[in-house]
Amino acid sequence: MNVFREAPQGIQTAPHDPRIIAAGYQVSVREVDLSRVRDKESLMLAFLRGLGLSENFGRNWDALYDVLTDPDARPARFALVLCDYEHFRRRHRHLGAELERVLLDAQREAAAQGRSLWLLAEERESDSRHW
């Protein structure tokens, strides 16, 4: 599966080794680890760390949208890997719905600017693979 051959389409399943595949398509990749998110503040901190933002990041939905759609802040071909996304959505339904709205709005705005923003959901390997 190679999501980078097509235009971004919502939140998609991340391919195995997304960084390696993205490199061949000149797509920059950043990862946001959602496994330790407890509330909106810890979610915003996860984005601050994952996107390499400065401490003056506003830590609210508008600030996140602005960071994702700012052509000076993100490359024209950019993938955001959301680590542990489905588990996060199950644990935090309301917060997950708000995040999804912001991410999809940012993806649409990026497309309107002639840019690409892939949103890739990646799950941790199951611990059940012991031999």
TrEMBL record:
It comes from the Bacteria. This is Barstar-like nuclease inhibitor. Belongs to the barstar family. Residues 29-120 form the Barstar (barnase inhibitor) domain. InterPro entries: Barstar (IPR000468), Barstar-like_sf (IPR035905). It comes from Deinococcus aerius.
